[in-house]
Backbone:
């Protein structure tokens, strides 16, 4: 079991959702996140005064999957989120110790479904 | 004998005095009557100025209403952009209408458009009626211009919108306006000569704005994500129904200047027109809510809000000449019509109009214009006036469509070919606030972009 955590551009969320769906990955959690990577922020101006925004808005996706879905899921996220510009985001893959479905009490791979 | 003489003399003096005083009194009465006439006239003139200006200020406030409705019905990432469009179409439009538009609309006509009064040349600064009339007509022109921004929301290049805005107030609105309303001042036009009824502008202001909005939305194409791969429309929800509701209430309030103000005289009819206007708006809101309730199973707030506006647009043309019961009927039909029209434009025409501007202003503007031909108490079809008035109304509404939609398509295509009308898809996804203006509407808030 793996947990995939991905940070992507907020405006790419729709495309990522679409490509996940196409690749039969239907379970995903999405949260807003602020972060700073190679992109190092951008400039906004307010009433003629420049200011640097260095924590950028991103969205964070968390997807728990069984081993056979790992490559597919990563591929799908890249497909949806990649523009080729700095700031496209990152994907982290971590091992998942346990998973329990609250309703049924199922554990492990079955709970991930 | 002496005493008799004295009595006689006294008698003569008294008589003379009486004659004298009677004649003086008569003279005084004459003077007082002319004085009263002059005072009455001056009072009437001043009350006309005061009422027309108050009405103009109310109509100006409708700009705030449009800004709030359009901001509320669109997404947070485009709020700065839509507010800037509302601010700038009024500002650019004011200058263009003052310099050229007003003259084209109300100057002495050459048969097609006016040719004098550009920049109000030849009018003395001061108390001249033309100044009052200018400010009143300026806010009307700006209303027509600002209708378009809602239909073109969330995807239009700002500079392209500014150019459009300049041309509608400079040419498109005033020339059509001169055909229907030129005679209100020095001009005249073929439509009003035929007896076309459009008291406050269902056609002249709202349909013109609505059909231009349709042209803009057609040339732009739908927003990204509005239509799925199967061609089915998807909801792109607005970010603030409270702002939209505030906007609708402001517009309703402003309409008490729009319709009753179009008397441009301080007279008894003001109250009557306020009643017909209010009845129609109320009926529009109720019937739009009911229609949405039946079709979509819930009393949808955005449709009910559109319904109030539909009632207001519908009663704008016939408001001075219909009975209160007719006003209710006119608003009710407008309310049903606006919901059906929004669904039709979304599902069948597949034109993306984020705020329903085409349905509210274009479609209900036509209905309002036709309803004058049906319900007018002197010439309407239902009051035994025959088909003549209705025919003229159809002709007026039809020519407004051809004029505004045709010129609109030409203008928007020209802008698209030269400086571009639509932002890049990346900018559209990120939001026009950052892309066009480099700032956010709700700085410090993080908003989920799910559409």
Residues:
């Amino acid at each position: 079991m793996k947990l995939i955590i991905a940070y992507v551009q907020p405006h790419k969320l729709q495309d990522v959702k679409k490509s996940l769906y196409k690749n039969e990955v239907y379970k995903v959690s999405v949260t807003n996140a602020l972060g700073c990577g190679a992109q190092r922020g951008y400039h906004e101006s307010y009433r003629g005064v420049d200011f640097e925004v260095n924590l950028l808005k991103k969205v964070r996706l968390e997807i728990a999957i069984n081993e056979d879905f790992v490559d597919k899921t990563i591929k799908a996220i890249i497909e949806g989120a990649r523009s080729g510009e700095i700031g496209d985001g990152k994907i982290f893959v971590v091992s998942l110790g346990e998973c329990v479905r609250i309703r049924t009490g199922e554990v492990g791979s079955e709970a991930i479904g | 004998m002496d005493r008799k003489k004295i009595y006689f003399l006294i008698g003569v003096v008294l008589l003379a005095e009486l004659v004298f005083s009677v004649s003086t009194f008569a003279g005084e009465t004459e003077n007082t009557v002319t004085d009263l006439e002059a005072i009455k006239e001056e009072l009437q003139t001043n009350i006309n100025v005061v009422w027309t200006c108050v009405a103009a200020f109310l109509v100006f406030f409708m700009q705030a209403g449009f800004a709030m409705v359009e901001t509320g019905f669109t997404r947070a990432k485009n709020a700065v952009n839509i507010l800037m469009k509302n601010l700038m179409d009024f500002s650019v439009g004011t200058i263009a209408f003052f310099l050229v538009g007003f003259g084209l609309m109300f100057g002495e006509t050459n048969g097609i458009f006016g040719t004098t009064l550009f920049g109000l040349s030849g009018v003395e600064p001061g108390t001249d009626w033309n100044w009052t009339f200018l400010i009143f007509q300026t806010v009307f022109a700006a209303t027509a211009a600002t209708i378009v921004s809602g239909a073109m929301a969330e995807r239009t290049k700002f500079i392209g919108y500014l150019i459009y805005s300049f041309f509608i107030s400079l040419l498109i609105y005033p020339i059509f306006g001169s055909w229907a309303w030129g005679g209100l001042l020095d001009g005249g036009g073929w439509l009003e000569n035929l007896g076309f009824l459009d008291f406050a502008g269902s056609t002249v202001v709202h349909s013109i704005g609505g059909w231009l909005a349709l042209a803009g939305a057609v040339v732009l194409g739908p927003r990204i994500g509005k239509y799925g791969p199967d061609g089915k429309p998807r909801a792109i929800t607005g970010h603030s129904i409270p702002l939209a509701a505030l906007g609708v209430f402001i517009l309703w309030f402003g309409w008490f200047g729009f319709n009753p103000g179009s008397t441009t005289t301080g007279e008894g009819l003001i109250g009557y027109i306020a009643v017909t206007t209010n009845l129609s708006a109320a009926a529009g809101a109720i019937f739009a809510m009911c229609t949405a309730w039946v079709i979509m199973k819930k009393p949808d707030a955005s449709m009910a809000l559109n319904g109030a506006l539909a009632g207001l647009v519908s009663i704008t043309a016939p408001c001075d000449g219909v009975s209160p019961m007719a006003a209710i009927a006119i608003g009710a039909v407008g309310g049903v019509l606006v919901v059906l029209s929004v669904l039709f434009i979304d599902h069948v025409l597949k034109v993306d109009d984020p705020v329903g501007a085409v349905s509210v202003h274009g479609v209900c503007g036509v209905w309002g214009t036709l309803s004058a031909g049906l319900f007018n108490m002197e010439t309407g079809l239902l009051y035994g006036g025959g088909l003549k008035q209705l025919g003229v109304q159809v002709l007026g509404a039809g020519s407004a469509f051809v004029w505004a939609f045709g010129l609109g398509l030409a203008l928007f295509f020209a802008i698209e070919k030269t400086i571009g009308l639509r932002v890049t898809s990346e900018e559209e996804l990120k939001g026009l606030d950052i892309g066009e203006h480099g700032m956010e509407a709700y700085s410090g808030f993080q908003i989920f972009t799910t559409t």
In short: Residues 2-112 of chain A form a domain with the Alpha-Beta Plaits fold (CATH 3.30.70.120).
